Amino acid sequence: METQFNSLYSVILDTYPLEGKQLTKIWKFFEHLKEGRLTTTKCVKCGKVSYPPRILCPDCLSEELEWVDLPTKGVVEYFTELKAGIPVGFEKPLIHAYIRLSDSFHILSKIVGVKSIDDIRKGDKVKLKVFDVPSIPAEIGREKINIDRVYFAFEPDD
Amino acid sequence: MRDACVIAGGQSKWGYRDATLIELFQEAGKACFDDNPNIKPADIDGILVASATSERLGRQTHLAPMVAEYLGIKTRSVCARAELLCGSGSSAIILAAGMIKSGMAETIMVIGGEKLFTPQRWETFYSQLGSVDHDWDGAQGLGLPPSLFSIIFQQHSDLYGTTEEQLAMVSVKNRRNGLNNPKGQFRKEITLEEAMSAKPVAVPLKLYDCCPVTDGAAAVILTSDSTAKDFTDKPLVKIIGTAQATESNSISNRGSWSTWSALKTAASTAYSRAGITADDIDVAQTHDCFTISEIIEYEDLGFCEKGEGGSFVEKGLSDFGGKVAVNTDGGLLSCGHPFGGTGIRQAIEITKQLRGDAAHQVENAKYGLTHNLSGAVVAHTIVIYGRD
């Protein structure tokens, strides 16, 4: 039977990453997301932690990297709402925050689960939110498969 | 080593245009040749085309031979495209200058531009998701930059007390200077009150804090100092120092939002190569993609102390008659910003200022600077020009 391709997938410019072990060497990041974990790579040789995850340590060029967990809860340092020019595929309100996850790690992420920007304050606690995004209709050799995908943002941690 | 000089420059009308990418390039090429009738297409041996979105929005790859053909140029030294998003035009100027100085080319047209208004407007915004790290920052909806610059302003304001009014003063000045460029997108002054009460784009940034979406192209012709004398009697405008520096491409884990260390690195490198300091710059075209950008650029280019960018504009020190006239043709805020065209438009205005025939002349300008930032404030490109 012919695999049904996802009609939400846009061939113009796909918003989300290539996921799945057929398409990327860092596929475990997305498997970890499905378990509610936010992870990245650490160099076994020199200890350098990189984000986004890599397949090569940019400090010592070692290819021996391991997965480490990043905190999934943080605090909002700055935030804003994009009012004009929202890219297709993103919903209003499109709110972004610069989030402190630890002393050594900040992330700039979309904030979901709020009705308006008035619901956010500096210093608010937020937590990781993982959600499904459109799958990739992929031609792998002679096979056609749908590669399921997830992505992440942050939401209020009440 | 010999020097590279600018001997002609011109641009198409910029704005919301009834023209395709290749038509914009033809208009810019024509305006450039018209600026110096001594130069003919047959005098050009190389072309460098600057365009960031030529495939996605302009529908064209393998652009350089096509532009050359439409302008009657048969290349012998170089024929290629240069891309560094908002710094594409200045990158192409740096590459052309290097080829001319080394003797690999004699006379090069550097031409850049974009077709950013698509029939469906959403395509433009959507395509910007690829201008940051697509998988990690674009996927968060961070393609269009106002959100980032809102955060940059908030941190600058927290640390140094920079106000929304001081931002508005940048747009009022640059809109006034925009009257100097008849081919710019906006030629209408605004008041401080209009700027302060404009609709929000990315809170607290408002409409006039942000440069617009623009169709347009611009071109300059560079040649060696010895050949330049065959084509012009005007004072020679030489490229005397250039630099490019980068920092964290990822938007996460930024050291600082409000001090741009790569800009400081690029500035000190370019000044040192030119053998001058920030105090010697008479006129500068800096990358005012947002009002807060111009304020941070005053500081990190060394025109004022760190944290004093807001008062620098408030005291009129970046205006005509101040310490250094900044964005004398209106900058991105007035002229618009077709990415590959911007660095070239800046080069045209600096050339006019240094040879003494600008629409609004900075008196006796000897040294001029252009600056572009690109991506999520990742790369900084500086070109310093000097009058013979």
Could you explain how this protein is built, in words?
The complex is a heterodimer of chains A (158) and B (388). Chain A is mainly beta. In chain A, 5% of the residues lie in helices and 44% in strands. Chain A has one helix at 27-34, and strands at residues 38-43, 49-50, 65-70, 73-82, 94-102, 105-111, 125-140, 143-156. In chain A, the strands form two sheets. A five-stranded antiparallel beta sheet of chain A has the order 6-5-4-7-8, covered by helices on one side. A three-stranded antiparallel beta sheet of chain A has the order 2-1-3, with helices on one face. Chain B has 388 residues and is an alpha/beta fold. Chain B has two domains: 4-120 and 214-237, Peroxisomal Thiolase, Chain A, domain 1 (3-Layer(aba) Sandwich), CATH 3.40.47; 144-211 and 238-387, Thiolase/Chalcone synthase (Peroxisomal Thiolase, Chain A, domain 1), CATH 3.40.47.10. In chain B, 35% of the residues lie in helices and 19% in strands. In chain B, strand 11 (367-374) and strand 12 (379-387) form a beta hairpin. Chain B is globular and about 55 Å long. The chains are: A mainly beta (158), B alpha/beta (388). Chains A and B meet through strand 4, strand 5 and strand 6 of A and helix 4, helix 5 and strand 5 of B.
Shape of chain A: globular
Shape of chain B: globular
Side by side, the strands of the main sheet of chain B go: 3-2-4-7-1-8-12-11-9-10
Parts with pLDDT < 50 across at least 5 consecutive residues of chain A: none
Q: What is the mean pLDDT of chain A?
A: 92
Assembly form of the protein: heterodimer
- Count of beta strands of chain A: 8
Q: Cα-atom Rg of chain B, whole angstroms? A: 19 Å
Q: What is the H-and-E element order of chain B?
A: EHEHEHEHHHHEEEHEHEHHEHHEE
Number of domains of chain A: 2
CATH class wording of the largest domain in chain B? Alpha Beta
* Total strands of chain B: 12
Compute the number of structural domains of chain B: 2
Q: Which structural category do the helix and sheet elements of chain B fall into?
A: alpha/beta
Q: What string gives the helices and strands of chain A in order?
A: HEEEEEEEE
How big a fraction of the residues of chain B is strand? Answer: 15-25%
- How far from one another are the termini of chain A? 46 Å
